[in-house]
Amino acid sequence: MPASPTVEALRAAFPDAVVRDLVQSGDQQVVYIDPSRNAEVLDWLRTDPGERFNLLVDVTAVDYGDGRPLEVVYQLWSIPHRRALRVKCELPLSRLAIASVTALWSAANWLEREVYDLFGIEFRGHPDLRRILMPENYAEGHPLRKDFPLRGRFSRAEQTRRALSQDMEQYYMPDELEGRGAPQLVPADESATSGSGSQSR
Predict the structure, then answer these.
(1) What is the pTM of this model?
(2) What span, in angstroms and rounded, lies between the C-alpha atoms of 75 and 56?
């Protein structure tokens, strides 16, 4: 496929920031940019009248393993122009940090937290960068990294010990700790009665 108008415009506006571009899955335009310029380039893609990628569909990451850089992936959609663009930034393992884009799209808040939680990538300038899926005191690392063991970094015995030593008041409401919030089972005779009654005419 020939280069899209967006790719050509990007290269003209940011000749030093565009690393390379390619087409995947038949028609998906992918542009690799300098990670130190991500906020600047993405802001331009969002606001330039000819581009208007005003919808941030997703922020995610990819770890290919074997010491290769991690990729931060931004999936964009232009509502006015009805076209998609995937922007990628490669981060070396020694510098897993990139500027947050929460000031551009509020949806990035939770998406960046997920990438931080599962891949360990820091988003500088994020207003509330903390885990979103794993517990805040989770000490085994980042589960979607290729070097993360399938059973976790700790033995089952250590995982059990840590789970049992947690302060339950941090995770449950007082009613739950006292047992009052537990679901109630319907006695068998009542269940049968209600069932037969519902079938009567």
Answers:
(1) 0.78
(2) 6
